[in-house]
Amino acid sequence: MPALPSFEANSMTNYLRKIIFNPDLLAAIAHRSYVHDNGFVKIVLDDSGASKYRIHVYPAGRIFAAENLHNHRWPFTSLILVGSLPHEIATVSADPEGDHARFEYIRNEDGTFSLSATGEMYNLESIISDVHDAGEVYVMPTATIHRIIPPTTFTATFVVTDPPTSNNCSQWNFVGADVGQSGQHQSKDPLEPSEVRRHLEHLLSELDR
User: Fold this and answer.
1) φ and ψ at 15, to 5 degrees?
2) Dihedral of CA 21/22/25/30: which sign?
3) pLDDT category, 2, cuts 50, 70, 90?
4) Angle between helix 193-207 and 9-20 (nearest 10)
5) Is residue 66 classed as helix, strand or coil in its secondary structure?
6) Is the pLDDT of residue 4 over 60?
7) How far is residue 65's CA from residue 62's CA, in Å, rounded to a whole number?
8) How far apart are CA 176 and CA 37, in angstroms?
9) Roughly how many angstroms between the first and final C-alpha of the chain, as a whole number?
10) Alpha carbon distance 42, 74 (integer Å)
11) Is 56 within 8 Å of 41 (Cβ atoms)?
């Protein structure tokens, strides 16, 4: 599993200030950042190496989140910086009469993605619910199926991912639920630098408390 870089709280706040007051760095980060269908702002700090570093921000006002269970193409480790994160881990079983439809997510060579219905049906077998609070770390292997319940208070996490082990993964949606952005060769609209600055300033103010 990817290891979190060791840092003190003041090194994180110093790093955030470095971004906020560096227009070129802020613009570069904004260009690769976007609002994710699962209800958070994905701020990609660095994607130049084997491990990628990002901050996920769940604003206090909440972002609409598509309801889905999913696994990942890569393992990741997440540190809760501020707030708390409701988290569910689930198991599913194939069943032609099931109430969850499986979709396949594919990362395309051109950097876009495709999310397509497979026609396969599943049932939700079991679910484990937990809440991760500020200072806690959790790890997620690629095969684990989970979902984050968007919190009602401002929450931010620092996420480190390892290289992907495949170009595809899955998500399971309750029949009739919103699956988020779907179809072939979809892309995400990048954030404006001012949006990234606003979210990072909010996070900085929470860390400085």
Assistant:
1) -65, -40
2) positive
3) low
4) 150
5) coil
6) no
7) 9
8) 16
9) 31
10) 16
11) yes
Domains for the chain: give ranges and CATH numbers: 9-207 (2.60.120.10)
Amino acid at 37: D
Side chain identity at residue 20, one-letter code:
I
How far, in Å, CA of 23 to CA of 51, rounded?
24
Two tokens at 130?
A: 């937990």
Beta carbons of 102 and 59 less than 8 angstroms apart:
no
The predicted model scores a pTM of 0.92
The residue among 66, 63, 68, 75 whose CA lies nearest residue 90 is 68
Per-residue pLDDT tens digits for 32-72: 999 999 999 999 999 998 899 999 999 987 778 888 899 99
d(CA 139, CA 163): 15
Check if the beta carbon of residue 152 is closer than 8 Å to that of residue 84.
no
* Spatial distance between the Cα atoms of 182 and 17, rounded to a whole number of angstroms: 36
Buried b (16+ CB within 10 A) or exposed e, 45-66: beeeeebbbbbbbbbeeeeebb
The encoded tokens of residue 51 equal 């491990």
What contacts 203, CB < 8 A, 6 or more positions away? 16, 55, 57, 81, 82, 156
Half-sphere exposure of 137 (CA within 13 A, CB side): 11
Alpha carbon distance 20, 123 (integer Å): 45
Do 188 and 112 contact (CB within 8 A), yes or no?
no
Q: What percentage of the chain has pLDDT greater than the value 90?
A: 80
